[in-house]
């Protein structure tokens, strides 16, 4: 999507789609025009990815996803599970074959429209060949059942990355999917650009509790098991799925503007944690809605686990129990982490990145609003943090690549590509520079328009540049691109005394 980067003017999606069509479909002669417009009638395989330059295998070409259903059944000891994902999709061109993303796990069955079908596996791709081609524009459903172990804590350590998938430790199960762990759990179109409304059903032994994104809409007993169904009416990217199973208590509250709050807290720690949550969460919600407009969700809460992690899993932020104690809040200032994660419900969850190189739109915003929160909560000046980030910028960006065009090769798995300095501090610097360039009222209008116009959708860097220019009433393209696509940042407007390394 980054048409102002070093990439060619053909969109990466089209390059991938064409390459796959040309090499993978013997006897087919698709032409560029029909492939692009989606009117190709000769069946061809869907592309293996959507053309994300940082994660080329993620997501799948040839179809859109209308709805995702994930049904999980855990073993009595919670060490293994069976998962069935059912995607309802629509073909964007006639499909002889299509892919889902899947790594690890044992495939038990694959059906298309209820009929058993043939499939093969190649790397992280599950290749599904229906009995007959799926015509362009036709809806279809594909269901994939897998069986797998829940990763233990040792395995989680070994991976050294945030994209673990499902992990079990200290008596709870949780998921850490970002950016590419969901397809370690079950088959998905594992890219935010293919997010869809999602139903998650968890069957777990009745001795433990279970929670997932969205609203609990049904509970039933099945012998020694309890089955709970959760609905996310807003589109949910697989990377933002949260599955909690274990000994925790769900506490409900009525939040500001009628937002329903529900927190899942380790049983026995409810009284330690709720006073902080009762103060910080409503305050952060009011702070953000005042700046940005209506909250994107009707239900929100925190899943506090002893295993820890900080992850903006949609409508159910994952946070370490120790961060939320009175002591943790006072010592670590973790109220700012809560504000950061809640801001992701706007930036990253409701407005999802179109490509992973757009990650600065998630993290840059979250860091920016965390700075404003700290200003309000403890009187710190956001300019101080920005001045020090600006000083480090050139050294960091030379290593990792520009803010909106990070170089994957610059990251090790431990760096959690593309979760580098550029997306966080670099992204916040871009927004700070924009705020210096335009006045406060205009900046606020840009931000509110961004989350309103792209609500429950996907958007990228070029969209942000366009929207900012339109709202400001002048072409901000050259200015923003000089910040987003350079390893040597321009002078900071309003701060001629700031220097970069
Ligand atoms: Zn973040």
UniProtKB/TrEMBL annotation:
Cofactor(s) annotated in UniProt: Zn(2+)
Alphabetized Pfam families for the sequence: Peptidase_M1
UniProt-recorded name of the protein: Aminopeptidase N
Region (Disordered): 29-53
Bias (Polar residues) ranges: 31-42
Protein family membership: Belongs to the peptidase M1 family.
Organism: Streptomyces violaceusniger (strain Tu 4113)
GO MF term (any one): peptide binding
């Amino acid at each position: 999507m980054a048409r102002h980067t070093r990439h060619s003017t053909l969109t990466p999606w089209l390059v991938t789609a064409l390459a796959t069509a040309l090499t993978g479909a013997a006897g087919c002669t698709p032409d560029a025009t029909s492939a692009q417009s989606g009117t190709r009638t000769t069946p061809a395989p869907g592309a293996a990815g959507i053309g994300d330059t940082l994660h080329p295998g993620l997501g799948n070409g040839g179809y859109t996803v209308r709805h995702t259903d994930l049904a999980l059944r855990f073993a009595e000891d919670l060490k293994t599970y069976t998962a069935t994902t059912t995607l309802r999709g629509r073909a964007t061109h006639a499909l002889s074959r299509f892919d889902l993303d899947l790594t690890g796990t044992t495939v038990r069955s694959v059906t298309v429209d209820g009929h058993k079908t043939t499939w093969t596996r190649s790397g992280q791709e599950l290749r599904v060949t229906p009995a007959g081609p799926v015509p362009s524009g036709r809806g279809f459903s594909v269901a994939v059942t897998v069986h797998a172990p829940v990763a233990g804590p040792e395995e989680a350590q070994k991976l050294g990355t945030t994209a673990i998938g499902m992990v079990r430790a200290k008596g709870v199960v949780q998921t850490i999917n970002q950016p590419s762990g969901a397809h370690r759990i079950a088959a998905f179109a594992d890219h935010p650009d293919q997010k869809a409304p999602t139903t998650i059903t968890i069957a777990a032994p009745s001795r433990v509790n279970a929670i997932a994104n969205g609203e609990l809409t049904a509970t039933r007993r099945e012998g020694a098991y309890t089955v709970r169904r959760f609905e996310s009416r807003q589109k949910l990217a697989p990377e933002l799925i949260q599955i909690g199973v274990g000994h925790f208590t769900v506490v409900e509250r009525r939040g500001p503007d009628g937002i329903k709050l529900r927190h899942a807290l380790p049983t026995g720690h409810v009284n330690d944690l709720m006073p902080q949550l009762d103060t910080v969460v409503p305050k952060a919600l009011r702070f953000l809605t005042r700046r940005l407009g209506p909250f994107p969700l009707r239900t929100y809460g925190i899943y506090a686990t002893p295993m820890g992690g900080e992850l903006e899993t949609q409508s159910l932020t994952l946070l370490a129990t120790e961060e939320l104690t009175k002591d943790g809040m006072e010592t670590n200032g973790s109220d700012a982490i809560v504000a950061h994660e809640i801001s992701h419900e706007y930036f990253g969850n409701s407005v999802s990145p179109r490509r992973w190189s757009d990650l600065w739109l998630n993290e840059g915003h979250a860091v920016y609003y965390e700075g404003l929160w700290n200003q309000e909560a403890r009187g710190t000046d956001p300019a101080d943090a920005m001045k020090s980030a600006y000083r480090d910028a050139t050294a960091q960006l030379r290593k990792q690549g520009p803010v909106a065009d990070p170089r994957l090769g610059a990251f090790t798995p431990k760096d959690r590509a593309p979760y580098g300095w550029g997306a966080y501090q670099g992204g916040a610097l871009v927004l700070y520079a924009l705020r210096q360039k335009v006045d406060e009222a205009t900046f606020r209008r840009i931000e509110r328009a961004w989350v309103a116009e792209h609500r429950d959708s996907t958007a990228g860097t070029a969209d942000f540049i366009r929207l900012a220019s339109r709202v400001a009433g002048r072409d901000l393209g050259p200015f923003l691109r000089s910040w987003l696509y350079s390893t040597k940042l321009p002078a900071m407007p309003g701060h001629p005394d700031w220097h970069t390394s």
